[in-house]
Amino acid sequence: MKRVLAAILVAIMTSCAFTACNNSEQNSSTADHSGVSTAPSVSETQSEASDEQKDPYEHLRDIDLGEKEIVIYVEDQSSARYYSQEIMPNDLSPDLISSAVASRNQIVEDLLNCHITEVRTRADGEMRNNIYAEMMGASSYDIVMPYMPAAASLAAEGAFYDLTSFDVINLDRSYWDQRANADLSIAGKLFFSTGDFSLLTFDCTHAIVFNKDVVNSNPDIENPYTLLADGKWTLDALYRNAKLATYESDGEDGLTWGDHWGFYVNSNYTTTMFVGSGERLTRKDSDDFPYLAVKTDRATEVVSKIHEIYTDKAATMQIEQITNYAGSGYSDVWSAATGAFADQRVLFRSLAIVDLAELQAYDKVNYGLLPTPKYDESQDEYYNIVSCYYATCFAIPVSVEDAEKSAAVCEAMAIASTETLRKNYYEVLLKNRFIKDDEGEFALDLIFNNRVFEPGAIYTWGSLSNLIPTVAQSGNFESTYDSNKDSISAAIEQTIAIFKDLK
């Protein structure tokens, strides 16, 4: 019955999901994240869908760039996990992604009469330094695609045009990420954003996997898919089942990496759990100004629960604390964590969507996908943060020769990515290859329907980005917050003042 229910839910969700999910994000972004978000009505959804069934390129068809070479500057650290394949395929790119990129680029080149090329930077900080150096002169690049923290830093220095100033960019359309637009704007200005062209933004979305074989081997462990279908997938549900799955099994005294564990989690996922609970590091007022919002009575309860889970050695293994995997053939603690999960020694493992690819190397691993848990059953929505350290975006340098041409290419790239790049990634790669069941597809749609881009984790506002990981470990929420709130608030106010003056 639960499988039937999940299948029905999938059918409902996919009728408006990933092509329409960004539209629902626009609606939910106006809601209080601690409570209920308002979904669009049927008539609203139908109206939006009808609008987008029209020629999406209509406003671009009279633009001719005269065979101009469009140079896109891409930040790419060539990480084994996170690598750029959005503009030109990487050697590691699956064929279906490479073909989608080629098709998308051909559509844009034919439409605008241009040639798309890319320049990649791999040195940490190199893109920021180069863009900053060119601000007062001629730009070498027509469009830049930095990671979001670099984009935030450059935006605060006046390096980019406000995307809302270009009539040719329809930021309200679903091929632009509506939640990103809402979360990343400051003072009504949006200097960088993302959409269907950014696979790294999709890859950086946080989630949880569970091992079905571990569930099946212990009758006391609740089926996570049943919990999800019943609206009972909460922090407490994760915690009590994690404790049931943790026990010594390697023959050594004390719990070590070689034993069975309920929950493998990394430190940054504590912020994800905080946001997943409906809390935010920052919120915005009616003038679109961010303010520090991390400290509320409810947030105090949430942090206390996260601390309890994160530090309980009878339930949780902190991935960064794995030290005894040497000689096991793993390259780092992340691979070791994935290996332990695949070996049926871990019930739950925090990860980003990109990590699903690594699981495919294990033929027999039997896993399910889950969103980040809610705080409690009264919370109506699941929220899933985008870890923006490697998340890419489009921005247009103020030093560009013809910003309108750059804007037209950004818009065309976003539109053309929907039926090429995103479709192959989301519908084929994720759903047909990486997701093992209907319930997992339902969970995937839940995850992507309620993604959060937290400015407090993107901008360098004092110690804000590290606040939750710090207190999750120490448990000293009050004192840590009190000692940092003034410097964080001052940094936020400084950013606001800068953005007010930017054109």
Our count of domains comes out at 2
The CATH homologous superfamily of the largest domain is named Periplasmic binding protein-like II
- CATH fold call of the largest domain: D-Maltodextrin-Binding Protein, domain 2
| Poorly predicted segments | 1-50
Please sum up the structure shown.
The chain has 503 residues and is of the alpha/beta class.
Q: Could you please describe the fold and organization of this structure?
A:
The chain has 503 residues and is an alpha/beta fold. It folds into 2 domains: 51-203 and 388-435, Periplasmic binding protein-like II (D-Maltodextrin-Binding Protein, domain 2, 3-Layer(aba) Sandwich); 206-385 and 460-489, D-Maltodextrin-Binding Protein, domain 2, CATH 3.40.190.10. Helices cover 43% and strands 11% of the residues. It is built from 19 helices and 12 strands. The strands form 4 sheets. It has a 5-stranded mixed sheet, with helices on both faces. Strand 1 (68-75), helix 4 and strand 2 form a beta-alpha-beta unit. Helix 4 runs antiparallel to helix 16 (403-434), helix 12 crosses helix 18 (467-474) and helix 13 (297-311) packs across helix 18. The longest helix is centred in the C-terminal third of the chain and has 32 residues, at 403-434.
